[in-house]
Structures
1.
Amino acid sequence: MEFIDLQAQYRAYRPEIDAAIRSVLEASRYINGPQVIDLEKRLAEFVGSAHGIGFSSGTDSLLAVLMAWDIGPGDEVITTPFTFIATAEAIALLGAKPVFVDIEPDTLTLDPALIEAAITPHTKAILPVSLFGHCADFDAINAIAERHGLPCLEDACQSLGSSYHGRRSGALSTASAVSFFPSKPLGCYGDGGMVFTSDDALMERLRVLREHGQTMRYHHAVLGINGRLDTLQAAILLAKLPHFEAELATRQQQADHYCAGLRACDMIRLPTMRSECVSVFSQFTIRISQRDAVQRRLAEEGVPTAIHYPIALHQQPVFSAMLHHQEQDFPVAAQAAREVLSLPMHAFLTRDQQDHVIEAVIKAVRSA
Ligand SMILES: *Cc1c(COP(=O)(O)O)cnc(C)c1O
């Protein structure tokens, strides 16, 4: 059993993917080929945003939006300490300060009730993460952002395909950043990402920043990056896209099946979402005490698991040294880091495999 079975997916879509790759090789337009523009249009339509701007990764997508907002030394950006490093890394790389705000104990997303106390005259943006596919509480967060005149960037690297109040993740705030890292719900065969926004001026700045700040060939108006999405990756994503809706439906059924089976054991805390959110379940993450012992037992039973994430960002050496945080500064995040365990989750996981996982998890939890 694989934690995420990329080979099973490739076997299922192989003719389309191979043909897409071959057509790029034959045309040899590896940079800014027509597939990039096509993908930007289709995905913008999918999420319900005016513009999609392809980037070389989710991290570069986050970075470019913050650059477009002129965020730099002396500025602060409010974000969650319970996420992948890239969220806060993008802020710190620009010389700005990531200001952590603790998460909600049930959904593990940024707690809107704690945001306003963290806003200072230096605050330049809010960066919530739709973690594991569960959207952050954007109604509450957008209201705070508006009240303070701040833009809001959704880290949607785990939530393409999720929705909130019937709107897709990616179109819930001023801008969003999506990742096509292979293990994400819509993954390419390397690194890739995209920004979505309905702000025309932001879209134009992002296109300039993505190509070394050039407005015309070899005319560089601002400092930019090499941040383009490869044509080859765009073509692979276009080949996978027609299957994405069906995969979303499968993932929902799989999440329901996990919940139904694991509910039998009251020592397991199931993923919780706000009722207005439909999750893509980029991770199916349970919470248990004795997590490390349970993970070891599952490995012995041939059940691969992962920990997203074992260390909250305020406790990561890079940030604890920079920001002088203590573990108890963000107690909800610190506790989540001790309890979370992600189970195998991908659209090609079979019922039998899921039943094996459910049985093994319950057994491991009861005996740990
Ligand atoms: C994967 C991920 C990123 C980074 O995406 P890359 O494409 O790997 O750069 C950023 N934030 C979150 C929450 C992620 O899960």
2.
Amino acid sequence: MSDDVLQSRRRLLRAALAAGGASLLAGCDALSDSERFVDLLSLAEPLNRGVQRALTGARLAQEFPASMIAPTFRPNGTLAPQTQEYRALQADGFRNYRLQVFGMVERPLEFSLDALRALPNRTQITRHDCVEGWSVIGQWTGVPLAHLLDLARPKPGARIVVFHCFDDLAGDGSRYYESVDLADAYHPQTIAAHRLNGAPVPIANGAPVRMRIERKLGYKQPKYVRAIELAPSYAAFGGGRGGYWEDRGYDWWGGI
Ligand SMILES: Nc1nc2c(c(=O)[nH]1)N[C@H]1C(S)=C(S)[C@@H](COP(=O)(O)O)O[C@H]1N2
Ligand SMILES: [Mo]
């Protein structure tokens, strides 16, 4: 069974378990490795899919009043990318920055910051949760990824959206990357954010554009986004597990 299928089953299972209580969650990964259990899941899949959609399909992450915005949005991971391509863009005030949308799309596109500002934008005050055990509330403004995808028109067979970043967190010449499925890509709170707390996104928080994918943990909020690629799976990227931290053992789903 492919990783993708396994991942989507795990996800369905988590949603179903969320309905019945979270106490079984810890055993989830071990359970899904059992073939008998997988068979059982296949039988229940149409039902689980319905349960999952009902529970999480339209669920919005909580949004907060302006009074709860933290004075500074604590940064983490890369704080100032040192790659040549980023430094060149930064030196120019990101005037030459273009956000690319490519891969399995009918119409590959690129957007300058002005072009992004001119598109429909969404502003949301949300809480960022890092697995290190801290949270911070901030106000983000950006273009819904759904809108960018509608313009680019994903081809049939595209199932994963990969975010390519400018920074080399590992220090080995690779680049930070992340990926989500189409349901999270089209979620109304998933935005390509270019403003934080009423100002352009600071360098430390991912300038000029970082994703906000509000039902996900911190490591699934890629900063310094260079390009958005539609693909059939995440297997061909990085270490093949769907993201920088996933390649180092973190869960691909990373939901909150
Ligand atoms: N490109 C890139 N994106 C990244 C990271 C990173 O190092 N590089 N760190 C991740 C982690 S672990 C967290 S908690 C958040 C931190 O976002 P912040 O710096 O705006 O707080 O970014 C995530 N996205
Ligand atoms: Mo994090």
3.
Amino acid sequence: MSSLIWLVLLSCSTLVISTKNASDSNASQGKSIFILAGQSNMAGRGGLKSGMWDGYVPPECESSPKILRLNADNKWEEARPPLHRDIDYLKACGIGPGLAFANSILKKNLSIGEIGLVPCAIGGTQISEWRRGGPLYKQLMSRARAALQGGGIIRAILWYQGESDTRSEEDAKLYKTRLAKFFTDIRFDLKLPELPVVQVALASGEGPYIDDIRKAQLGIDLPNVKCVDAKGMKIGYDGLHLSTEGEVHIGQMMADAFAQFIA
Ligand SMILES: *[C@@H]1O[C@H](CO)[C@@H](O)[C@H](O)[C@H]1NC(C)=O
Ligand SMILES: *[C@@H]1O[C@H](CO)[C@@H](O)[C@H](O)[C@H]1NC(C)=O
Ligand SMILES: *[C@@H]1O[C@H](CO)[C@@H](O)[C@H](O)[C@H]1NC(C)=O
């Protein structure tokens, strides 16, 4: 192939691959990387009992040699729950949506090769703490770059956050703007302007402004953002965190939403 054609292919590939054409981009191009970010329901609290994970791994969250996880040392390893154990390490972690998402993606035969999950969620964090330049944002960016070292494509950001923004009217009012800016900044800094985002509309919160946050999430006006709704999912003992069953369900819904990007 002539070098001119290669140039054209290279300059087009990011956009094409990150959104539509799955058949152009299979395992030969390396991992399909997914960034997992947000707060506790993304980090995973499913199966926690008196501050400890019960150890139950549902069949939907089983490990596979095709599902890797970037650990806190930025090394790939076979993913097993809890995915965030060394990232959100100040809290007890249990089942989150990540493995159910990945297993569900594999079942869809999308020809996207090996899956690389990059856990970045931290419990109890507000959207303002994820602003560009802050420590959470920097950590996410540096883990995303580390994930790309071995080759691969960042396919999407999976985002589940907002419970901590339901406490004040001010935060609730600003949520939509802050969220849109966060997604836009990440896309810009990763140089993936059309990077798909799959986010979750809240099922629970820490304060009275749950509906305002949900409205912001469901109404976000950016291309390539899909929102799955956690309303009605099974919440665990504390009224805030999804149960294992709820997390599995959300992970599968996120996989269905992601599949629409490459259908
Ligand atoms: C994807 O790429 C293949 C090969 O280049 C092409 O034949 C096919 O039409 C493309 N599909 C879409 C949906 O763009
Ligand atoms: C995936 O890549 C391999 C080469 O590594 C190629 O033989 C195969 O046809 C590709 N599959 C699809 C669906 O593009
Ligand atoms: C995926 O491929 C497997 C094995 O070829 C097949 O059994 C399964 O039905 C396929 N699933 C879908 C959703 O196409």
